[in-house]
Design goal:
By secondary structure, the chain is of the alpha/beta class. Helix content is 57%, strand content 6%. A four-stranded parallel sheet has the order 3-2-1-4, with helices on both faces. 36% of the residues are buried.
Length: 261
């Protein structure tokens, strides 16, 4: 089944208007003054920022937070901000990350050589260090949100949220998720309707966790297969097993911490 068939019945223009109203309503309900959103240079943050700009014109700030990032990320983020007409603030997180990571590595080095080798071999070390980036960005977003009395708009979409492809207390730490009900190809349709530049829409999705990292490569799934399963339940046995396993393993990310009865 093609993406075109999956988008039948989805009116991106109407959805953009509905979501702008929804965001405006959430800002009003919270008694907030506006929206802050992290601009990564990717399609999800571009769509979230564009919807926010429609919802509360003149009251949206885009934060650019490079952290040993691909230079194209910053370039594309600025292109998005210019296209939709929102101000930006750039916070270079490189030195913060380096200092923090140095202290953590020094503390973690107290384990036995065997323990350190096992952690490195499992990939846990790379993931632990990579996840510092979205967590530093979350803290940065809330610093500005608190100063401005704004809400933090998250950029996660349904495809990512369903399988837990986000960092707990990182990019998962937000106030609202305007596109959290839309699968990836619906976000692309919305981006077209919002006038997001084509180079942003066609860019391979990445969380920017390390050089060469892509969403699909890390998940072990294509968005096409994931979207098809979420919307129709159709998938090969292998894809179905992969998705359902990710859903089970990430359940803790999607609910409040458990409290004893």
């Amino acid at each position: 089944m093609s993406e075109n068939k999956l988008t039948i019945g989805f009116d991106a223009t109407s959805e953009a208007a509905r979501l702008a109203d929804w965001i405006a309503g959430k800002v009003h309900e919270a008694g907030a003054d506006g929206i802050v959103v992290g601009l990564s240079g990717g399609i999800d943050s571009a769509v979230t920022a564009a919807l926010s700009a429609r919802a509360v014109p003149g009251r949206v700030m885009g934060l650019l937070m490079p952290c040993h990032s691909d230079p194209r990320d910053l370039e594309d983020a600025r292109l998005v901000a210019s296209t939709i007409g929102i101000p930006t603030v750039t916070v270079n997180l490189d030195p913060v990350y380096d200092t923090f990571l140095s202290a953590l590595r020094a503390a973690a080095g107290t384990g036995t050589p065997a323990e350190q080798e096992a952690a490195a071999a499992s990939g846990r070390v790379r993931l632990a260090e990579a996840n510092l980036k979205p967590r530093l960005r979350m803290a940065t977003l809330y610093y500005f949100a608190n100063r401005l009395h704004y809400l933090v708009a998250g950029t996660g979409n349904r495809s990512e949220l369903e399988v837990g492809y986000f960092t707990k207390y990182g990019d998962g730490g937000v106030d609202i998720l305007p596109i959290g009900h839309l699968v990836k190809h619906q976000v692309r349709e919305l981006a077209q309707a919002l006038g997001i530049p084509e180079r942003i829409i066609t860019r391979p999705p990445t969380a920017g966790l390390w050089v060469g990292q892509t969403d699909e490569g890390e998940m072990g799934l294509t968005y096409a297969d994931l979207d098809r399963y979420l919307l129709t339940g159709e998938a090969s046995p292998e894809v179905r097993r992969r998705i359902e396993s990710m859903q089970r393993q990430s359940q803790h990310k999607k609910v409040p911490p458990p409290i004893p009865s």
